[in-house]
Amino acid sequence: MYEKIPTAGMAREEWLKLCKTGIGGSDAGAICGLNPYSSPMKVFWDKTADGVEERDNEAIRIGNDLEQYVAVRFMEAAGLKVRRSNYMYRSKGHPYMIADVDRLVVGEDAGLECKTASAYNADKWADGKIPPHYAIQCYHYMAVTGKRTWYIAAVILGREFVYHKLTWDDALIQQLIEAEGEFWNDHIAAGRIPDPDGSEIYDSVLEQYFHTAKKASVVELVGFDARLARREEILRFIEELQSEQKQIEQEIKLFMQDSELASNGYYKVSWSNVETTRLDTKRIKQEQPEIYQNYAKVTSSRRFQIKAA
User: Fold this and answer.
1) What pLDDT does 175 receive?
2) Which domain holds residue 288?
3) What is the 3-state secondary structure (H, E, C) of 242-280?
4) Is residue 306 in some structural domain?
5) Burial letters for 114-123: b for 16+ Cβ neighbours within 10 Å, e otherwise?
6) Domain shared by 194 and 251, yes or no
7) What helix, strand, coil percent values describe the chain, rounded to 5?
8) Do residues 45 and 179 share a domain?
């Protein structure tokens, strides 16, 4: 059903390279359009870019550091025992699917996913809810390992501890297998960029793939009239909204006059003094051209513009 790849003692870089060889649980929600913090393009870039990217921020550090704490709280609340697996699992039937699970439940055909959530996201866990991309992550693990049950436990920092039990769903898991297979074969294996999604990572990948324009090359712009008209409409809306935003800010500034801070029960406003120092590069270039040349750095990028014909 699956291949077990030992990960105990594996170097971090080797583990990251292994993660690039398949779709993992945290990728599943992004591919399905359910992850608010990722996108299909982000998964595509993670799997196809040269080298490995070590992602590290405070939220990731907290989640890693508190994983064992969440597992202990789960054992206390559920009356079950869990253990680390120390393996990466790869589906034999669908080798593009891999799973690096947090814990396995002892004496039960089940696993456990450990999460740490901010108090600001407590509503996403309220009344028995599970954030959709986390639920899909658990079903992905079931699909890879064949286990019929997966628990998910979360500590909502400073608020509460919750856990839920998910059970095998034939229709959902089959849809997930097909969606991941289609994405892997049609995009990652084929090297074909996913459809645009408006994200910053999409712009970055386009820049990587098409970094330099062929001089004087022209392509006929066919099939974009409606989209370009919509873009013009959006720009007008943005201009109107930005003007309204600026007016509100000016009203507040007029009210504050020379006060630095203003507040009420809902908002805190600051209008602080800021000093900045900038090099006068134009003057340096004129008066000290050799120094300017020694420290000048040339970067190359492409500028995108749309003008009326």
Assistant:
1) 97
2) 225-295
3) HHHHHHHHHHHHHHHCCCCEEECCCCEEECCCCCCCCCC
4) no
5) bbbbeeeebe
6) no
7) 45, 15, 40
8) yes
Q: Which tens digit of pLDDT belongs to each residue from 205-237? A: 899 889 899 988 999 999 999 999 999 999 999
Better-scored residue on pLDDT, 297 or 3 = 3
> What average pLDDT score do residues 104-125 get?
95
Predicted local distance difference test score (pLDDT) of residue 18: 96
Q: Is residue 152 within 8 Å of residue 115, measured between CB atoms?
A: yes
Number of domains making up the chain: 2
- Tell me the H-state helices in the chain: 12-19, 25-31, 40-48, 58-65, 67-78, 132-145, 170-183, 200-209, 225-256, 281-287, 289-295
Q: Which one of 157, 182, 208 terminates a domain?
A: 208
Residue type, 53: E
Rounded CA gap, 198 and 227, in Å?
14
Residue where a domain stops, chosen among 176, 208, 240:
208
| Co-location of 242 and 203 in the same domain | no
